[in-house]
Fold:
Amino acid sequence: MDTGQKKIILIIEDEKKISGIVRAYLEEEQYSVIVAATGKEALGLLGEPFDLVILDLMLPDIQGEEICRLVRESSDVPIIMLTAKSSEEDRIAGLGIGADDYVVKPFSPRELVARVKARLRRSSRPEKTLMSFNKGALKINVSNYEAFINEDPVILTQTEFKILLSLAENPGRVFSRDQILNIVQGYNFEGYDRTIDAHVKNLRHKIESDSKSPAYIKTVYGIGYKFTGVPDED
Ligand code: CA
Structure:
């Protein structure tokens, strides 16, 4: 895995039970974890060089949204919000003020850890902007939202690109429609997981040579989708 130093993750969460569980899962994955149980405590730590922040929105003293704003004034550290709020407006507001991702309670610690890993992978390798699959048949330029099929550019909407990128970054991993919806909601929120099917259908039309027998995005019946392209060696 990554060489050298452990990544440091700040958990801002007043519920000890939750921060304890999340800490245990993250430490199991070799991350260093620091917990702040109040907003004040968190603000006192903001000068420290964290690699990622997990932020609960419902804190006893300072609102999570306010903390998010304050962090964003001086840092682009990835922020994953934790919250019991689950209405569409809250989700959009959370992403609108600079959170990178959003997990609704009750959540699975495993799922949260997977998202932490995905965020850290993304932020630690900014130089790798071109992904290539199936011997160059599919290329994805992460930096400018371009995709190429057999070197020909494919015009994707932001939502389609976001879905493609999220799946392609995790080949073989099964994503539920809800998870995909969560990933794309900051771009084009429509609120129903079935709309994901429509996006995937459009995406397939653009990137698959045979939509009925897709090479890249396979349906996992009853669950969602997974990416089945084969990453090319660097
Ligand atoms: Ca709380």
